[in-house]
Specification:
Helices cover 33% and strands 16% of the residues.
């Protein structure tokens, strides 16, 4: 299933883009809206067991998810649990937390 399947669609026909749209023969642009994620409370996060991990050069969320959960598609669980949108927001030596109970973490973070 595509990650876009359940995303709302927005039509962008903003006047500020009119020159560009006219040059390309386009009347409007169809875009997927940015999802809004609920942030679990500190109390909810305390209920999820985790192990500490120190970020190092070359680390990627998907690699850690593959090693930890056997499924690289679960990278987002680690990222959301740490409230870190991308690997670029981490530096070598930063401590992150890797949820150990993936079912509880997915339910709470999803």
């Amino acid at each position: 299933m595509s990650r876009y399947s359940n995303r709302p669609i927005a039509i962008n026909n903003d006047q500020n883009y009119q020159d560009i749209l006219d040059k390309r023969g386009v009347k409007k642009i169809v875009q997927y809206t940015t999802p809004t994620f609920k942030r679990p409370t500190d109390e909810q996060l305390k209920k999820i067991r985790y192990k500490k991990y120190f970020w190092s050069v070359g680390d990627r969320f998907w690699r850690i998810a593959q090693k930890t959960y056997g499924d690289r598609r679960l990278w987002w669980v680690i990222a959301r649990f740490n409230n870190v949108p991308t690997e670029g927001h981490l530096s070598p030596g930063d401590e992150i937390k890797i949820p150990t109970d993936i079912l509880v973490a997915r339910e709470m973070l999803g």
